Amino acid sequence: MKVIASPAAVAQDSAVIGSVAELALQDLFGVEQKLSAYHGKIVVLNFWATWCVPVPSGNA
Fold first, then answer.
1. Which of 17, 15, 16, 36 lies closest to 25, judged by CA?
2. How confident is the model over 5-45, as pLDDT tens digits?
3. Residue 55 has pLDDT above 70, yes or no
4. Cα Rg of the chain, angstroms
5. For tag attachment on the chain, is the N or C end more exposed, with fewer CB atoms within 10 Å?
6. Could you give the CA distance from residue 60 to residue 49 in angstroms, rounded to a whole number?
7. DSSP 21-57
8. What is each CA distance from 34 to 17, 20, 39, 44, in whole angstroms?
9. Rounded distance, CA 60 to CA 56, Å?
10. Do residues 24 and 35 make contact, with C-beta atoms less than 8 angstroms apart?
11. First CA to last CA across the chain, in angstroms?
12. What's the longest Cα–Cα distance across the chain?
């Protein structure tokens, strides 16, 4: 894993400050996770679809 910025540096960046829509998705274990539960933490969301190339192996 490569750290690209400290959480403090990211928190002060005006491009990442603002309101966030409530988002709730199921994790790999089928448990609903709400984005609001991670308030104050850095979150990376990776969206993909089975029709996008390349699809990670085993996810189709």
1. 36
2. 666 666 665 555 566 678 888 888 999 999 889 888 888 87
3. no
4. 15
5. N
6. 8
7. ---EEE-TTS-EEEGGGGTTS--------TTSSSPPT
8. 19, 12, 10, 13
9. 8
10. yes
11. 25
12. 38
Which of 33, 4, 49, 39 lies closest to 19, judged by CA?
Answer: 39
C-alpha dihedral, 34 to 50 to 56 to 31, nearest 10°? 20
Region of residue 39 (left: phi > 0; alpha: psi -120 to 50; beta: else): beta
Strands 32-34 and 24-26: antiparallel
Domain ranges within the chain, ordered by starting residue: 1-60
| d(C-alpha 59, C-alpha 56), whole Å | 6
The tokens 């979150």 sit on which residue?
43
